[in-house]
Design a protein that fits this description.
about 70 residues, alpha+beta, three-stranded antiparallel sheet, about 50% strand
């Protein structure tokens, strides 16, 4: 399963338009988060999970390993 994290590129320092691109990594966990008053669950890779932990605007409610990753 593919990670549903997104990365921003372009913008102020690169003088180009802002583009959002989906992460290309395989998801290893399902992360339930609260952001902007909304609660949602997303598959995430280790990189995006760490970014969510570091982001003060995201409250992590629950993290569950994906079954396919546990059985490998």
């Amino acid at each position: 399963m593919r990670c549903e994290g997104y990365r921003k590129s372009g913008g102020f320092m690169t003088l180009g338009p802002i583009h959002w691109k989906q992460c290309g990594e395989e998801a290893i966990v399902s992360v339930k988060v609260k952001q902007d008053g909304e609660i949602a669950t997303f598959p995430a890779c280790m990189i995006c999970w760490k970014e969510a932990i570091a982001n003060k605007d995201i409250e992590i409610i629950e993290v569950v390993p994906l079954e396919s990753e546990v059985t490998k």
